[in-house]
Amino acid sequence: MLRPFEIHEPGTVEEASVLLAQFGFDAAIYAGGTELLLIMKEGLAHFPHLVNIKTIPGLDEIALSTEGDELQIGPLATHWELERSPTVKKHAPLFAEVESQVANTRVRAMGTIGGNLCFAEPHSDPATLLLAWGATLELSSADAQRQLPAADFTLGMFETARQPDEILTRIRLPLLSENTAGAYRKFSTHERPMATVAALLEVKDGMIEHARLAVGSVGPVPIRASEAEGLLRGQGAEEAAFSTAGELAASASDPIDDLHGSAEYKRHLVRVLTTQALEQAAKRAVGAVNEG
Amino acid sequence: MRVEIPNGDDSPHLRINLKVNGQSVDTSIEPRELLLDFLRDRLGFTGAKRSCDVQVCGTCTVLLDGRPVSACCTLAYEARDRELLTIEGLAKGDELHPLQQSFVEQTALQCGFCTPGMILTAKSLLEEISHPTRQQIQRYLKGNLCRCTGYWNILVAVEQAARRLQPEGQSESPA
Asked: Is B174 within the bounds of a domain?
């Protein structure tokens, strides 16, 4: 049985932030609970105060920005809602696709995108994708608000740049240009993935203008494979050196040996998954241009 | 239904109302109480089983407002003002639900430990997609583990139940 705790039900972000500041390390934000309750059940952490942000209205909204240039996702949107949301499927189909592969049906029904990102579990699918995507995260406290690139948010295993009194209040996903397409590849033998790769390619006149590549799950945090990205720039989308890019991504990644697999095997997976993701992204980008 | 707390202690209690299998429940809970313990030990609904205890295996699956959740890793608090369905609420008296009937006919179970979770997850699927493809069933049930059957008969049973529930067979586009 869990050790006793109190649940607080703030009505606004400000109230929640004040509670979090007041209780400091004795408090945790409670949303879906799919990660938090696990560590509390295992006795790895105990928080005498849970601040339930689900009592704050509006934090689960999914909408296009007024300018129509970005998708704005509330932190309480569940994976279940994100994989089904017509807005997400229309404006960021790759994001919906990745959300539909998170954990299992039950975790998706309860788990929130905000909780997933703030918990910073190293095998997070959305964290890998959002790093490649160049998403921005909005953090709010009682008296301040700041915008942080996804790349600066995850600092380490279970560690983020979020301050104890801050709440992730929005995930901002810039819409991809119509000649950009992406793909996501993962491999798992257990519940959580062993290796994940997100690739985004911007293709113009058959040439790769920009490549964005992120590798996750193999080490403490997802990383960008910048050398591989640089290699692909300027290459023809249909005959680019995707397998060389895979090798570069594999050597850029720093896998650890654990129950999911050996570092050597994970590095092999990164190479294969990167190549596959790039090939699929290129096919989609070229297809999108041709349909254009 | 009124449920009393077995042994009162100093930890804070919350008054909650919810519906379990169509019946109203009015009770007090501790914030730390897990939904699975609440259902099994307090209400006597033992259909949901504890197995992996880390929301991976699916034996504790119940439907919360129609969506499958792992009762082992969900607070009873989450059920406040909501509706829960456990396997006990599926049959109408002696008349089995089409999913239960199909599981029996197809021998989609051996030891039966995973069956309540399998059937409830499948129920949620069929409410969303009345005639799912084999792949859609596999994806939806991916988080429900069975260590006896090899899954084949389970897939066949879900397909049979889908036909029984909606014989007309107008199929939606894949989600």
From this structure: no
